[in-house]
Amino acid sequence: MKLSKTILFLTIAALFAFAGSTFAQNNSKTAAGSATALEKKIMRTIENLPNYGVFDHISFALNDSGQVTLSGKVLSLGTSSIAKKAVEKLPGVTGVVNNIENLSNNASDDHIRHRMLATLAPQPVIGGLFQEPNPSVRIIVEHGRVSLEGWVANQGQKDTIYVLASGVPGVFKVTNDLRVGKEKV
User: Fold this and answer.
1) If we measure between CA atoms, which residue out of 116, 99, 143 comes closest to residue 55?
2) What does the alpha-carbon distance between residue 102 and residue 51 come to, in Å, rounded to a whole number?
3) Is it true that 1-103 and 107-180 share their CATH fold?
4) Which H or E run includes 48?
5) Nearest by Cα to 146 from 120, 105, 113, 111
6) Taking the C-alpha atoms of 135, 137, 140 and 145 in order, what is their torsion angle to the nearest 10 degrees?
7) Is 107-180 a domain of CATH 3.40.1110.10?
């Protein structure tokens, strides 16, 4: 009798332990799923900002507590503060750190921006990557230095954009931060 009570107690304890570990695994999957859903909402919110164009690039990081850190560079005036306000309103976001830099609007960089689009946009294989709204490739120009940001379908597109961008008059340096494949999130 004493042995059967002990076996019964151990069986019940084992069931509780198993249920607890299953609950913990399900909660961690749910938390990971909700973080991914929140990341998608943040990304869509940024992509749908007014005046967020081909010469702007915003990225973000989301930590476990719901704090979002925005970074990048924008040419369009007000886009930095609008991005912060829009992301702050999302359910699940506990705070926003805004590290987005505003690019200066000078004649030399403006000339480079327009020459970049004039060179890249007409190209049949890559031209569609620069179309607004929400272009796949973004061109950041700062003091004659160009940074290519975004996503392309293959290495050939990445290389073509880099070579053509490097040949635009007035460009001192091109940094090719384009990623190949599908956009994450």
Assistant:
1) 116
2) 13
3) yes
4) none
5) 113
6) -160
7) no
- 121 close to 176: Cβ distance less than 8 angstroms: no
Q: What is the pTM of this model?
A: 0.76
46 within 8 A of 28, measured Cβ to Cβ: no
Q: How far apart are CA 35 and CA 16, in angstroms?
A: 28
Q: Which residue, chain included where needed, has tokens 């943040």?
A: 42
pLDDT for residue 88: 96
d(CA 89, CA 170): 41
pLDDT tens per residue, range 115-156? 999 999 999 989 899 988 889 999 999 999 999 999 999 999
The pLDDT tens digits of the residues spanning 24-68 come to 444 444 445 566 889 999 999 999 998 899 999 999 999 999 999
In CATH, what number does 1-103 get?
3.30.1340.30
Indicate the domain borders of the chain.
Answer: 1-103, 107-180
pLDDT over threshold 90, residue 81: yes
Strand (E) or helix (H) holding 98: strand 95-102
Identify the residue with better confidence: 27 or 102: 102
